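Listing 4. Sequential folding, example run.
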Amino acid sequence: MHDAQQRKPTAHELMEMHIEAMFTHDRNMRLRTINEPWPGEPPAPRFFLGRTIEGSALCRFRYDVPETLVRQLEELCADEPILRDLRTKPKHFDVYMHLLQSERFTMGPCYLVPDDFMPAAQVVSVTRENMTGLLRGGFEWLASEIDYAQPCIALVREGRAVSVCRSVRITSRAHEAGLETLDEFRGRGYASAVVAGWAMAVRKLEGIPLYSTFWDNLSSQSVARKSGLSFYGVNFTII
């Protein structure tokens, strides 16, 4: 069992696990692609910055970013203050955008699903063997991913899945959650239940269950808040 599972990982360790799960790296720890478990990996962003509640900042760069620019960005990253609020942009946001000559970025909070978080309703595992009936009526698109996005946990009503949480970024150390709930079944606590069930399944595989979202996805943040997930940092990328 990994040492990180025998004690609570630090925020910096969780951010390291997050970036490992989100992107593939080359031997120089440069970003290569987005780490999707299914075939067809798109290119990674050129710049990643992970700020944590402990005050540490972790930055990574795509393989094609020039070394001179990497050094400039690293110096700026080292000057980032302790994270106080999940909606606060990086201190050097404008400089990062200028140096990389970009207007496109993403940002969002990152959470750890706690060990003691249990599903408040019955959930089931979705696999190729039982997916046919479960995915009808809204989750048919998931059939093409089912072999890759495991564990996949669903809450079922009237014989079909209405809320699903599955692994969408996977490494030997951690899994990142992908959460979807059908519109007409939102606001009933179903999302929290499937996240809890998914996290239990990930821990059985000796992995760390991580949950991240975008800063403007208020419904996803609401699930995290109501579920008592542990906020450890904010990711920021420049495309």
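-- end of first protein; second protein begins --
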Amino acid sequence: MRYDLVIFDNDGVLVDSEPLSNTVLAAYLTELGHPTTYEDSIRDYMGGSIHRVHDTIRERYGKELPGEFDGEVLARTLAAFERDLKPVAGVVDVLEWLQADGVPYCVASSGRHARIRFSHGTTGLEDWFDETRLFSAEDVGRGKPAPDLFLHAAASMGVAPESCVVIEDSPLGVQAALAAGMDVYGYTAMTPAHRLAGATQLFLDMGVLVDLLKS
């Protein structure tokens, strides 16, 4: 394989969490007086860190979200995960191939460490990602679309950015990977292909990812 490290986004790539988390976020923002539809949440916040929500509300409404916002969003999201979260179909097959072939891989997510660990524990993915393979926007100063998180993951894994490929499903993630000087494969199961413009490859079915990585 031409890459020395495969970096996975978490939400929407490893775990099928985007419908759940964006439903929760849209409902809570609306409850707080900032009307937000599910589609709005997907468009504005998918792939971003919680700081992006604060910045967007501040810019649009000139108001601050309450101090308990982050904790409440996390609690509501984890409750939804516990009920309904599943791994993305076909992703375990990809992880099995990477492990069998000795290809290094990790996860670099805009989500907090607690959320990533919970989602993996709920879906049975915890055996694939120990702490040495798990990176969060909490670890860096700026989240996606800044390149910081992906650069941090690559440096921690001891791999040059140009030898990495990122598996992403959000426009913010694609921008971050390109800014980091990495190839990026855009997963279009939830995101229209045109919103992932600039990706090195686009794919709709996780079942084809192994073949793409081999080519």
